[in-house]
Write a structure and sequence with these properties.
The protein is mainly alpha-helical. Helices cover about 80% and strands about 0% of the residues. It folds into two domains: about 1-40; about 45-85.
Length: about 90
């Protein structure tokens, strides 16, 4: 007989904790969504550095190809072909 009131008290604590956890989840959800949106839009310095590194490698590859073509065709290389397009 004594177990029934104790079980009721223990169950009440579980229900209250679940309600609090749900409320906290609902409150923090808009913040998580907003920060995810900002992360998707903002470019970090590391990402910008990686992008610039890829551009430089592509340009260097183009210069090398143009030099080989020019040598093969016995002409001066046209480096304007390798300028980055804006």
């Amino acid at each position: 007989m004594l177990l029934v009131p104790l079980a009721a008290l223990a169950l009440t604590g579980c229900v209250a904790k679940t309600a609090i956890d749900t409320a906290v989840g609902v409150v923090t959800l808009p913040v998580k969504v907003a920060s995810a949106g900002v992360d998707a839009v903002v470019t970090t310095q590391a990402e910008a550095d990686q992008k610039r590194g890829r551009q430089i490698r592509r340009q260097e590859e183009c210069v090398g190809k143009e030099e080989r073509k020019a040598r093969k065709q016995d002409r001066e290389p046209d480096y304007e072909k390798c300028e980055p397009k804006h």
